[in-house]
């Protein structure tokens, strides 16, 4: 087997893929060229380590290092329908393999570290364990889940939702991107065949995801690595504000039914409600029809991303924003329809597992407001933990997202220690 490649070497290969020459940000949309290139990169890196990658019908990938061989053996999952795999997990032993990894797609004009750092660090952690002479007593898998960001088809963590059965393929394939392309068609155009089935997680006893921190908690604590305690509940809601198209010059202000005004007030209301409650509310995407400079719009569609520290707090905040928007619509002579598109409840990671792993390096256990595949697998009943790597600015979902290589190496060390703890020879 060829010598393992350093994390920094892998990072240099990843850096140019899907990067914008103008902004420096990344456009790694699922089932498009950059993301396909990254999946090929992952397969090559696994092959160099003697790991055989299995790719399911929608592009999720996993490769296993089993105790007796560096290649896939009985520890690897088979393609299986999610509902069947879920039942088999409930009926069978859970003390099996440990899965790690993350995702390779990005938000539009996103940062380099969100997702790929977890994948590259997982490979580097296996290298480090082998250098230590460590032999796992249970399989260690490295996974890549597709469409984690939800930036193309609007459904966050879609790959892991499909694998766990939280979303059905019959529902997902009808989703459309901004160009009107059906998800099912995009998957087929990428050379994949959904009829092959999805990865089964029946052989997974624990999932550990390494991720760059999306915030400043570790910076404020002056530590390089932390573990997750919970994920805040969060979701996306589509607000459709309908009015009457008209001439921007000849229509008196008092005669207008302008949905842009209703939207503008709603965006301000969302900001105020989130600030008052110490929560998060963001309108980050807007579509306007007919989108003409000299026309009053007929329709404004805006997407609200809302997050809160508790499920009831989130529901109350979104309800209040919707109430104020509806009242304003009445005054503006417009109408409003609010549609929840992707809502995830609060996720509390296994506290015993978190405390056990935190003791390996005296790492802090902190909450996160960002959604992750780890939350989906935790909801599916798989004991789950997250390792965070310090982000010196706290900026994420932006070209300015960053992590120092020294901290990234500390993350690899921490992940290797965690994997060794979870797969070491039983006493």
From TrEMBL:
Gene3D superfamilies: 3.30.70.360, Zn peptidases. Residues 64-96 are annotated as: Disordered. SUPFAM superfamilies: Bacterial exopeptidase dimerisation domain, Zn-dependent exopeptidases. Residues 75-94 have a biased composition (Basic and acidic residues). It comes from Nocardioides astragali. InterPro entries: Amidase_Cbmase, Bact_exopeptidase_dim_dom, Peptidase_M20. Belongs to the peptidase M20 family. This is Allantoate amidohydrolase. Keywords: Hydrolase. PANTHER family: ALLANTOATE AMIDOHYDROLASE, ALLANTOATE DEIMINASE-RELATED.
